[in-house]
Design brief:
Keywords: Exonuclease, Hydrolase, Nuclease
Helix content: 40-55%
Protein name: Putative 3'-5' exonuclease related to the exonuclease domain of PolB family protein
Organism: Neorickettsia helminthoeca str. Oregon
CATH class: Alpha Beta
Number of domains: 1
Number of strands: 5
GO molecular function, one term: nucleic acid binding
Radius of gyration: 19 Å
Pfam families: DNA_pol_B_exo2
């Protein structure tokens, strides 16, 4: 394993499935979405309107790619690029294919925040719906170490799981950890805004937001690796410098990078002793 991929997806309700799921005959988006939420409220005894994973439509996939090397017991990461695809440029099937093609080709260590419960689950259901084959995702590694073993953090580090000791302590929201660690955070947008932003045609803004989530996830991951002693203090500092350099070089690709950098510059995580 010689690479790391930090990933995040953004979704909206897949209203193409509404009629079959709920019996709703309306073609009004708000009414279809409400019908899907009402369905989920009914099956959870009024506790949760959040749609189950197969009923989401993927509209953005963002990946942060880094190389990974191990020497003298330490890991060394080097940021290479941040890449995103969105529903304006690609069909949903192509977005899902983009993710699994990359994973199956390079077999990276995956890093996510709640990715096992949501993002990856959505991607797997959609891959099955579209007939996308991802054999290497399921058959790489061994019996105990692989992408699908919940505790194989070297294959998939789901930070919400690892940092809570798999539910032994509270599973923190990413936004909460960003506050606790002094990280830039979500810059005024969260997942609850995505549907309305999509309706307003703000696909690029959703993509920018998704990339900020990926950056926060990467920062939390680096902080954890430093705490665990898996990367040295010097490597940690170098990783942060690489990140700042990359974002400064790509300000034209995502306007949110500028605000992220400004907030990061004031963060205590830059000044660990």
């Amino acid at each position: 394993m010689d690479s790391v991929v930090v990933f995040d997806v953004e979704t909206i309700p897949d209203t193409d499935l509404c009629a079959a799921l709920t019996g709703c005959k309306s073609d009004n988006l708000d009414e279809m979405r409400s019908a899907m939420e009402d369905y989920h409220l009914r099956i959870t005894d009024g506790k949760n309107p959040f749609l189950r994973q197969p009923f989401h439509k993927v509209i953005v996939v963002s990946l942060l790619k880094a190389t990974l090397a191990v020497k003298n017991g330490y890991e060394f990461l080097e940021l290479k690029k941040i890449a995103s695809g969105d529903i304006e440029s690609y069909a949903e099937k192509e977005l899902v294919q983009f993710f699994f093609d990359h994973v199956c080709k390079s077999l990276p260590r995956l890093v996510s925040y709640n990715g096992r419960a949501f993002d990856l689950s959505v991607l797997k259901y959609k891959a099955m719906r579209y007939g996308i084959v991802a054999r290497d995702f399921y058959y790489s590694g061994d019996k105990w170490s692989n992408y699908n073993n919940r505790y194989s953090a070297d294959w998939h580090t789901d930070l919400i799981e690892v940092l809570s000791d798999y539910g032994s302590s509270a599973r923190m929201k990413m936004s909460e950890l960003c506050v606790a660690f002094g990280l830039p955070g979500k810059l005024g947008i969260d997942g609850a805004n995505v549907v309305s932003m999509y309706d307003q045609g703000k696909i690029n803004e959703i993509k920018y937001y998704c990339e900020i989530d990926v950056l926060n996830t990467y920062m939390i991951y680096l902080i954890m690796l430093r705490h665990q002693g898996r990367i040295s203090s010097d490597s940690y500092t170098r990783n942060l410098n690489e990140l700042q350099f990359y974002l400064n070089e790509n300000l034209d690709k995502n306007p949110s990078y500028r605000e992220f950098l400004q907030l990061l510059d004031r963060s205590p995580v830059l000044h660990f002793k």
